Amino acid sequence: MIEILILYIIRKSEKTIYGIRKDIIELFGTFTEPSIGTIYPALHRLEDEKAVSLTTRMSEGGKKSSYYSITPKGTELFRKMFFHAGSDNPSLFFTHVQARLGTMGILSREDKIKFVNETLRKTDIFLFGLEKKLEDEFIELDYYQRKLHERTVNELKSLMEFVKNLDIDAK
């Protein structure tokens, strides 16, 4: 997920690692606030894949700074990662969907439709499984487990409603 956010942030202009972190927090801080210790290894993975390029130069303050920019391969990788199968863990799924929702503005209309349909399909699968578990008389959920499952069912329904109402043509 962090790689998608990094590639999204540097798609318009090169940034230092601190600029990348600042922009991620500004745009996506409602669900993630990555540390430099999370961003740094992700940038190195992206560098190894030739998805980002690194330029080192002196900043205006006279300090040596490293600037990251996206490469054409990085643009391809963004799309590939965007449509990579999400997690089978519902908690991670929510976080990954939020990252994708926050970056889908750069996708084509066709890709937005594809993403919406895939998200609704996967959400429906999670919802079906949880509702079946709640109805299963042989699964003994205690009060707190039941409440947590019910809360997750409500979150999944809310996510589905949110995604269904997205304006695919918005920029």
Would you give an account of this structure?
- This protein has 171 residues and is mainly α.
- The protein has a two-stranded antiparallel sheet with strand order 1-2.
- Strand 1 and strand 2 form a beta hairpin.
Present the secondary structure layout.
Elements: H1 2-9, H2 17-28, H3 36-48, E1 52-58, E2 64-70, H4 72-82, H5 90-103, H6 109-135, H7 143-164
Antiparallel strand pairs: 1-2
Helix pairs in contact: 1-4, 2-3, 6-7
Spans where pLDDT lies below 50 across 5 or more residues? none
Strand fraction: 5-15%
Q: Which shape, going by the Cα principal axes?
A: elongated
Q: How many extended strands?
A: 2
User: SSE string, helix = H, strand = E?
Assistant: HHHEEHHHH
Main sheet: strands, sense, barrel: 2 strands, antiparallel
**Structural class by secondary-structure content:** mainly alpha
What number is the mean pLDDT? 93
Helix content: 55-70%
Please give the order of strands in the largest beta sheet.
1-2
Total number of helices: 7
Nearest-angstrom radius of gyration?
A: 19 Å
Q: What is the first-to-last residue Cα distance?
A: 21 Å
